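Hey, can you fold this one?
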Amino acid sequence: MPLKADLDAIDWRILRELQDDGRITNVELSQRVGISAPPCLRRVKRLEEAGIIRGYRALLNGPSLGMDVVAFCLVGLHHHAESELKAFADRTRLWPIVREAWMVSGDSDFLLHCVASDLAAFQSFVIEELTSAPNVDTVRTALTIRQVKDEGLVAIGDRH
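Sure. Predicted structure:
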């Protein structure tokens, strides 16, 4: 599959390093990727302006903050008109318990990644909010047992 961006090996190294540690200083980043600091900063700015780097955020430890339940919900809708899909997608943005939402193909229409303080809070969300939302036909839930992998969203291999 062709790349949608014109990136060289240094760009790929910058992306790999920033995905591993978004708080790295430009000086440290430049040393790790083998170029001086000013061109490194220009490359990072170019990657940001191109939308390849969408932003930076802190990764919080949910259980240490009392958010002990992680679950996934597969949601099927009654109607699949574009306006109905958009309306449900917009609704997911209003639910704080939903941390990520994906429109998917197959037996379901949406996959929701949910994080809650406890099982009761998650159950309340599913029963009172999700299943009663307009156009929702089916909801299947999966409670997680433990996370076994947590990597950056994009796999950046050593070939770059």
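The two ends are 15 Å apart (CA to CA). Let me know if you want another pass with a different chain boundary.
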